[in-house]
Design a protein that fits this description.
Blueprint: E1 6-14, H1 23-27, E2 38-49, E3 53-65, E4 72-86, E5 92-100, E6 103-107, H2 110-117, H3 120-123, H4 129-143, H5 148-151, H6 153-157, H7 171-174, H8 179-187, H9 194-205, H10 209-215, H11 224-233, H12 248-252, H13 257-265, H14 273-284, H15 297-312, H16 322-327, E7 335-339, H17 343-353, H18 361-365, E8 369-376, E9 379-387, E10 392-397, H19 406-418
Helix pairs in contact: 9-11, 14-15
């Protein structure tokens, strides 16, 4: 059934000091401004309400000119929408969407929860704050207390003070009211045990909440004893911003139970292969076949990579973009850089190095990156990825996605710099590995 929204409040701010934009005014702009031939001349904030939800819609009026006719035009366009609604189960759910290139896209509702927790003085620090103040005021009238702390009490109890700190896919855990309920929601009521609760409490006390988020995905797929042991013994050091926990259970269903034990206890040695494996499972899970037995994440990564390559690898030539032409055949006498000319090159390198470079075929064909190899004589030493318009190094890794020796890293970086490639301080495989490995 379609919801009926009513306008509860609206305000428009006009920028009367701005002059109409013209071809002459654009021509006189500084070079960094020249990319656009329109300007914002007003902004409107509108609060809409229905029986169980409230929205704040921010839009703008833009004015420009038609390059062919020289005539001016104006139009309203939506920028972003903040929302808050009560579900049939009584939970309050925040949403945030923005218009990107004419299409509505949803993003993390972090900012919504942030200003719902602010008082009026703190909201005043925002630009265009009146709409936010009105949104919060009416939300409190409709729903009562709407702060982050009131909706996610367990997060505050475990010192997760902001929505951004909550790992993806774990929000229901933080709505629980006590630690026992937290453990039951994470692992299931039927699997609740005192030693499990103690193990989770120990991980939390050691500030290893991300490890709990990882291990809970094994619930029901391995004996609870293994989960307790893993929480007590294994230090995962996971990065919640680089993990697709939502794809983990799908990955576990691809292997037999004894292999799940291997994945549970060897995760600390898979800082690169695990996130990459989960990325592929998340994207191609419905088309992947049962793998069976694996000893660790590296073997699962290689098995899935071969399947992904068969699914999506077009047998085509790769166009050599400008960055590829600069890089190809660069040599210092010992090492030589070679760029991929055909998708089969990527497949061959992937098989030889036991890495997933074959799954990047479409990016290479679309010109979204340059993919190449480093040879020492006839020996394949490593592979690399360069992305972006001017070209920036993103990955440089050897066999099994292992980093190279520092002297080899320095030699490859020097060759890439000669090819006008930007070398960031940190990338996958860099000698400055702190924060990545």
């Amino acid at each position: 059934m379609t919801k009926t929204f009513e306008i509860a409040w609206a305000k428009t701010n006009r920028y009367d000091h701005l002059q109409p934009i013209t071809p002459e005014s654009v021509a006189n702009r500084e070079s960094w401004e020249r990319r656009t031939s329109h300007q914002e001349i007003a902004r409107r904030e509108t609060v809409f309400t229905s029986d169980d939800s409230i929205r704040l819609v921010v839009s703008r009026l833009i004015q420009g000119f038609n390059k062919k006719s020289g005539k001016n035009w104006t139009r309203w366009e939506s920028l972003y929408t903040y929302g808050l609604r009560r579900t049939s189960t009584g939970k309050l759910v925040a949403t945030y969407s923005a218009t990107v290139k004419g299409k509505k896209k949803y993003f993390s509702p972090l900012e919504v929860w942030n200003f719902l927790s602010f008082d009026e003085k703190e909201i005043n620090l925002y630009s265009f704050q009146e709409g936010r103040i009105e949104f919060v005021k009416r939300a409190k009238e409709m729903f009562g207390e709407v702060s982050f702390a009131s909706q996610f009490p367990m997060a505050v109890e475990l010192k997760q003070s902001e929505y951004s700190y909550l790992p993806s896919g774990s929000k229901d855990l933080w709505r629980t009211k006590n630690f026992r309920e937290f453990v039951e929601v994470a692992f299931g009521k039927s699997r609740y045990r005192k030693d499990l609760m103690k193990a989770v409490a120990g991980a939390v006390e050691r500030r290893r909440l991300n490890d709990v988020m990882y291990v809970k995905e094994f619930r029901g797929l391995v004996p609870t004893d293994w989960i307790v042991s893993a929480l007590n013994q294994t230090e995962y050091k996971l990065n919640p911003y680089n993990e697709q926990f939502s794809a983990l259970r799908a990955a576990l269903h691809l292997v037999q139970q004894t292999s799940r034990k291997n994945l549970l206890f060897t995760v600390g040695r898979a800082s690169y292969t695990r996130p990459e494996t989960l990325r592929m499972v998340g994207e191609y899970g419905a088309n992947l076949k049962y793998v069976g037995k694996v000893r660790d994440w590296q073997e699962l990564h290689d098995a899935i990579d071969k399947q992904v390559r068969d699914i999506r690898l077009p047998k085509n030539k790769i166009k050599q973009i400008a960055a590829a032409k600069r890089i190809d055949k660069k040599t210092d006498g010992r090492l030589t850089l070679v760029t991929a000319k055909h998708t089969q090159d990527l497949a061959d390198w992937g098989d030889e190095q036991s890495i997933c470079i074959g799954s990047y075929a479409q990016q290479a064909l679309d010109g979204r990156g340059v993919y190449g190899a480093v040879y020492e004589g006839e020996t394949l030493l490593a592979n690399f990825e360069v992305v972006g318009g001017p070209g920036q190094l993103k990955q440089l890794l050897g066999k099994f996605n292992k980093p190279l020796a520092d002297q080899d890293i320095a030699a490859v970086e020097s060759l890439l710099k000669e090819a006008e490639v930007i070398i960031p301080e940190r990338y996958w495989g860099s000698s400055c590995r702190e924060g990545l490995y």
